[in-house]
Amino acid sequence: MGFASIVWGNAIHNAIRANHITRSHPNIMNLHTIVMGLIPIGWTIGGTIAHLTTNEAALITSAIASIIVPISAYIASPGFRRR
């Protein structure tokens, strides 16, 4: 997990920096770093749900919670809808 995480993280950062279309590189990089820092909180919540119920319930709950953010962004952003 450690070595793969380093490779994956660097690949994501390089992909963000390679996009010269936007000028918001620092904002995107900061948002990515914040989101990556919040992953252990998601693991903790998922583990708690799995412990209190079943693994399937935890997976379904996390899938529903994860899809809400992109759908909300799509609905709220006219730029996403035009593409």
Q: Key features?
A:
single chain, 83 residues, mainly alpha, 0% strand, flat
Q: Could you characterize what this model shows?
A:
Helices cover 86% and strands 0% of the residues. The chain is mostly helical and 83 residues long. It starts with a helix and ends with a helix.
Order of helices and strands: HHHHH
- Work out the radius of gyration: 16 Å
- Global outline: flat
> How much strand content do the residues show?
under 5%
Provide the low-confidence segments as ranges: none
Q: Look at the helices and sheets and give the structural class.
A: mainly alpha
* Count of runs of 4 or more consecutive helical residues: 5
Q: What characterizes the major β-sheet?
A: none
How many beta-strand runs?
0
Mean of all residue-level pLDDT scores: 81
Task: Give helix % range.
Answer: over 70%
Distance between the termini: 36 Å
Summed up, what is this model?
The protein has 83 residues and is mostly helical. It is built from five helices and no strands.
